[in-house]
Design goal:
Elements: H1 6-20, H2 24-34, H3 39-54, H4 56-66, H5 73-89, H6 93-101, H7 109-121, H8 123-130, H9 135-138, H10 143-153, H11 155-165, E1 172-175, H12 182-188, E2 193-195, E3 198-203, H13 208-212, E4 216-218, H14 224-230, E5 236-240, H15 247-255, E6 260-266, H16 269-282, E7 287-291, H17 301-304, E8 309-315, H18 330-333, H19 338-354, E9 357-367, H20 376-385, E10 389-397, H21 399-402, E11 407-414
Parallel strand pairs: 5-6, 5-8, 6-7, 8-9
Antiparallel strand pairs: 1-3, 1-4, 2-3, 9-11, 10-11
Helix pairs in contact: 1-2, 1-3, 1-5, 3-5, 4-5, 5-6, 5-7, 6-7, 10-11, 14-15, 19-20
Length: 416
């Protein structure tokens, strides 16, 4: 894909995502790896791709208003890019129209040009018409999500949540205190800014150097809740049952001052390779990597031989509704049945893992979901099904109140 423009990369990414249903992050990262783009053009391609995905329903509403007749799906992608530039990214009208028109064949250019020129003329009317549309169109979220969030959080909070999901996220990083500390980090990386009341996280615009040096790990401050609730101590044995991509594993090692043992498990080999890469770069020497699927097979002897563990973290696979602004296409993948399915899987993992905890040991169950089925309902089921486990504390981070990504964690103690 050498020498393609940012717009052509974004257009190619939209088609691949639409036709092959790969995860959005995978699509754009692979295309950018093959494209010879300057850093500014790479950033523009990412903005266009994610911006269209964040606003799909809204953009299609405008397209339908401008062109009621059926439109070829490939042409629709081009119009989505053009309207995103004109109405949301606020790209100059000349550049948005001219460059977008030249993404298609000469035969198709009059159609694209005509619709985009019409959009410019009718912008005021289009925006006025949008105000009377339901939330799922105005905020480009599936209707079933809007309805369930409205029942759970109320209309005002649902609006705030949708607006949150549609904003590009800042880059937050946890300072790796196995290698540095906040004053030294801020001195070395001048674009970093400390976050009030959160001592070991920063916001920064150019993380590449700090990442390569192992001085930080990119993650939202809400991800720290589960690790801090676990309260690991130096010298202990910890099981990180669902460890990929390894950020929490490395944070546990930091909290333990690299003294003890962390067994980091996950079910997929390629994801475990990423765990290994991250813990190596961050200097988490006490982490041992092991492949295991808690829902498929009996716990292997290699894990049993290390049990019982002092503490266990289950950062369970979930629907990711708390991190939609970072995982942009999650909203278009979810189905109403997903939450019950995830709950059943989460409980299966928790039941398989719980037997490995020592008496008086601590188990923390966590997700990055906002959904009651995956959080409070799982907690209640664990209390019901495992009478020797006592709930000690629950914490929740909600984007519309805490202003970080959504997260949930529950701390249990196994009684004697």
């Amino acid at each position: 894909m050498a020498q393609l423009s940012a717009r052509r990369v974004a257009l190619a990414a939209l088609k691949i995502w639409r036709t092959r249903r790969y995860f959005a992050d995978r699509v754009i990262s692979r295309l950018l790896d093959d494209a010879l783009l300057k850093s500014t053009d790479r950033a523009f391609a990412v903005e266009l791709f994610y911006g269209v995905l964040r606003n799909l329903t809204l953009l299609d509403f405008w397209i339908a208003s401008l062109r009621p007749r059926r439109i070829d799906v490939d042409v629709r992608d081009v119009l989505r890019l053009g309207l995103y530039q004109l109405f949301i990214a606020k790209t100059s009208e000349h550049a948005a129209v001219y460059e977008t028109v030249h993404l298609v064949t000469k035969r198709q250019r009059p159609i694209i040009n005509g619709i985009l020129r019409s959009a410019i003329r009718k912008e005021t009317d289009l925006r006025q018409e949008l105000r009377s549309q339901p939330q799922d169109i105005r905020f480009s979220h599936p209707k079933f999500l809007i309805e369930r969030w409205g029942k759970e959080f109320g209309d005002e909070a649902t609006t705030a949540l949708c607006e949150w999901n549609n904003r590009p996220p800042p880059i937050y990083a946890r300072i790796n205190r196995l290698k540095t500390d906040l004053p030294n980090f801020l001195e070395r990386y001048r674009d970093a800014r400390s976050i009030p009341n959160i001592a070991n996280f920063v916001e920064l615009s150019s993380p590449n150097k700090a990442l390569s040096q192992g001085d930080c790990y990119i993650q939202d401050p809400s991800t720290a809740i589960a690790c801090e609730l676990l309260e690991p101590k130096p010298g202990e044995k910890i099981l990180d049952a669902c460890a990929a991509p390894g950020g929490k594993t490395a944070y546990l090692a930091e909290l333990m001052q690299n003294d003890g043992l962390i067994l980091a498990c996950d079910r997929e080999a390629d994801r475990l390779s990423l765990v290994q890469e991250n813990v190596d770069r961050l200097g988490a020497r006490i982490a041992e990597i092991f492949r295991h699927d808690w829902t498929k097979t009996e716990t292997p002897e290699a894990i049993h031989s290390l049990a019982p563990f002092d503490r266990i973290l289950i950062d369970a696979p979930c629907s990711n509704t708390g991190v939609m602004r970072r995982r942009v296409d999650v909203r278009w993948r979810l189905k109403p049945t997903e939450f019950g399915r995830m709950r059943d899987r989460q409980l299966e993992i928790a039941h398989a893992v719980s037997a490995l905890l020592k008496p008086a040991g601590i188990l923390v169950y966590s997700t990055c979901s906002l959904e009651r089925e995956e959080n409070e309902e799982v907690t209640r089921a664990l209390i019901r099904d495992m009478p020797s486990f006592k709930l000690e504390e629950q914490r929740k981070c909600l984007p519309f109140t805490n202003h970080f990504d959504g997260a949930f964690a529950a701390r249990f103690r196994r009684t004697n």
